[in-house]
Amino acid sequence: MLFKPKFATILTLIVVSSCGDSFLQVGAVSQQQWDQLNSTVNGRLQAAVPFSRPCFPDVAQDVLGEFDEDECATVQAGYTNSTVRVGVVGSYMMTQWETCQATSEQCLLDDLDPSDAQAFSPPQVCAQGGIPPLYIDVQEPADVQAAFSFSQNTSVPIVVKTTGHDYSGRSSGANALALWMYNLQQLSYNSTFVASGCQESSAAPGVTVGAGVTFGQLYDFAEANNITCPGAAELSVAVVGGHLQGGGHSALSNAFGLAVDRLLEVKIVTPTGEYLTANSCQNEDLFFAIRGGGGGTFGVVMEATIRALPQLSFPAVHFDFNVTSETERELLQFIASNSLQWAEAGWGGYILPKGSMLFVNPFLSMAQAEEQMTSLQQFVTTNLGATFTLTLQPSFLTMFNNFLLPPALPVGLPFITTSRLIPAANFASNESQAELVDRVIEALDDSPYQIIFAVTPYYFKSPGGTSINPIWRESLWHVLGSASWNYNTTTDEKRAIYSNRTSQMDLLREITPGSGAYFNEADVHEPDASASFWGDNYDTLVAIKRRYDPNHLLDCWQCVDWEGPSAARFSCYL
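The chain above was modelled as a monomer; its predicted structure follows.
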């Protein structure tokens, strides 16, 4: 078990690292104030210890925990395992957010070889980095209300963390107080759920999930209850957190919409201290903001109820092939020429240009699917020598286990993404398709992990009432590039990696004017972020933000109405 000291051991943990301007300087917050907060939350104020702490003999003065070889072996064995990391408050899936990138204060292992002693032996020092030194293990709304009151009185910033799946560092922060939502584990199903204050005639099957429930838990629950709840392609992602509030795509998004399209109700604590129910019948403005405005912005969602779909069986097309530069281009050209008609028929899924594809369609019989995909089968088997399968999947979980394990994207290393939504207009002619393919190949050329997500709700369109960028519903692809580094990469090298990824994605930005990017998987330095993430919805979101958070207690990187990169709380960003 990883070291997790209780509050009694951290009464003097007011000294923090030199990572940027300190909010928790000695004397800035009195011991009495910390005592009072801890009492108010019934002793659930605790210290966050870096995940790799047990491996380091030498530590910075503000880091708790102990050097322990046995515990270190456990950390090393699970270092790149999301299932191990998910329940540790001092762990983030993308480990640059455990660090202060601007000062190189960190507590990381070598992700290529976690047993490599050069990463943790002296003179290496384990520092707190970007991990909030203190957190509240949230159990009830009053815990969040107490945190907001404390922040208002002390200016200590608040961050909200659940599982640590975060490409932009919004759930971490040096010198912040974290709200850890992981232990909110309620999970229930109501076949005739009626949102509070709505008409009985609006009843719909709904699954209510606590903020800490992961998609792995939800998929098992849905299978047991003979329903379908599509979601993330990684089991340890939280259902309710940034995934949902930023949009939330799945293999079935084209058919049934994004997660925000199926949201029925949330219960949320706002920075003004109110515990509210938001749905289409009450607090509608807040409900609109939550459905795409981004997590960690308008309040802290304690639970959400999501529309459940019937148990579904559906055709799935899958193939693998040995890629070359020539076959990659051939494949993308063929897919681009067929993407519009596939989307219009309800197909969606994942394209890995370096060697595989998974598409599903819940609206077709096997015979119809075979007819629609005959040309693809002939192309990939004849031209690429691929192994092609068309199978009937009896449930979403079966499909997930058959095709999406292990997860496509890595954890346990510094890893960044960039993305772009590709509108249907870019598929309108042979010329525009050819240009798109050329740009995609060049933009992703040096990405270690590259995926084309065919997960936009083009077929589904919109029931209205969401705040994501409307360009989602006019697009066919969400293209994702990436970059990574290791524990010993220099600060200058990291800056160059960030800059290169932005430049590479400019190749797609240039041919998609007026489009945007996915808030949850975007470039950390996304140009014109507010327009890219929310389009014409942005000004409305700002007004809602100021209504429910007038004192700006919540702020996060490139979030609605954020204070900007020069704010002290963002001093660890590069």
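The chain has three domains: 7-180, 187-311+536-570, 314-530.
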